[in-house]
Design a protein that fits this description.
Blueprint lengths: L1 H12 L4 E2 L1 E3 L2 H9 L4 E4 L1 H9 L9 H14 L3 E5 L7 H13 L4 E5 L17 H14 L6 E6 L1 H4 L2 H11 L6 E4 L5 H10 L4 E4 L3 H4 L2 H6 L2 E5 L3 H18 L14 H8 L1 H11 L3
Helix pairs in contact: 2-4, 5-6, 8-9
């Protein structure tokens, strides 16, 4: 566990920006590992639908997320950063959330300032107070049993508040002991520059506008150490599954799916067939 956490720390201490793999289950994490992604990110939205079959407006609980992370870290040797929502309650609940996620090998834990749970037909329920969020982050930091675990202060303020308020929140969160910040809802390069001026901490950013997203030098120069592109891979996977099932249900031939299928060699690599056969040959005796 500490190895994965140390790797995460080394990554955010560099002066370059690293692309994260936005994964959604153990299978996608295994493939990201094969492709040598240094960090995997499990967001709440795709985590809920992949694990529970529900949308983001439904509140999952801490045990759901812990179980999901356990299955991911068991199969993929990657540094996992997880969206831990609001810590699943007040600062007392945050303490338990951090310890449970640590126990299953998560490298970095995001605690967000959004008001949770979201409500049906309410676009933006808003943010909790700056003071409450600061208390939660301090509780998260103090709860760590492994000092290499990274607490990430996640904020949606740049998408929901004035620039002055967003900058003020970020500066406050940066004084809680959290060792990285994550920004969502960023709308411009100017906001990224303002965030960099407001915090000395490494910045993780979710799907900034194209003029920033496609400029790696700009992101690196402004303290962005992890870039997340959202969940297009999840959407592609859902469409492929839906189209394939529909094709067969509508009477299509199985052979017509051949060009879209993984090769036998790729499937063997993904499920680690050769690794387990070697174990069988070495230890299974008649």
């Amino acid at each position: 566990m500490s190895v994965a956490r140390e790797k995460f720390r080394q990554m955010i201490s560099r002066d370059t920006c690293t692309l994260a793999a936005n994964i959604f289950d153990p299978l996608s994490a295994r493939i990201a590992h094969m492709l040598e992604y240094e960090v995997c990110v499990l967001s709440g939205s795709v985590g809920k639908v992949a694990n529970l079959g529900v949308p983001d407006i439904v509140l999952s609980n801490m045990s759901d997320v812990v179980d999901h992370c356990r299955r991911i870290t068991r199969i993929a040797d990657v540094s996992l950063m997880v969206d831990a929502e609001d810590g699943f309650g007040n600062a007392v609940n945050v303490v338990r959330t951090v310890r449970e996620l640590e126990a299953v090998g998560v490298a970095a834990i995001e605690i967000e300032d959004n008001f949770v749970p979201k409500q049906f037909n309410v676009q933006d329920p808003g943010l909790i107070s700056k003071e409450e969020q600061a208390g939660k982050l301090q509780a998260a930091v103090s709860a760590r049993t492994d000092p290499t675990t990274v607490i990430v202060a996640r904020s949606a303020a740049f998408g929901l508040c004035s620039l002055d308020e967003a900058v003020d929140r970020l500066a406050t969160y940066s004084q809680t002991g959290a060792e990285a910040v994550m920004l969502t809802g960023v709308k411009s390069r100017e906001q990224i520059e303002a965030a960099h001026r407001a915090t000395p901490l490494p910045i993780c950013i979710l799907n900034p506008p194209p003029e920033a997203r496609n400029d790696a030098a700009f992101l690196a120069a402004n303290g962005v150490r992890i870039l997340m592109l959202g969940n297009p891979v999840f959407a592609v996977a859902v469409k492929a599954i839906y189209d394939s099932f529909k094709h067969l249900k509508d009477g299509g031939a199985m052979e017509e799916l051949a060009t879209g299928q993984a090769s036998p060699e790729l499937l063997r690599a993904v499920n680690r067939t050769d690794e387990f056969r070697q174990i069988q040959e070495e230890y299974v005796r008649d």
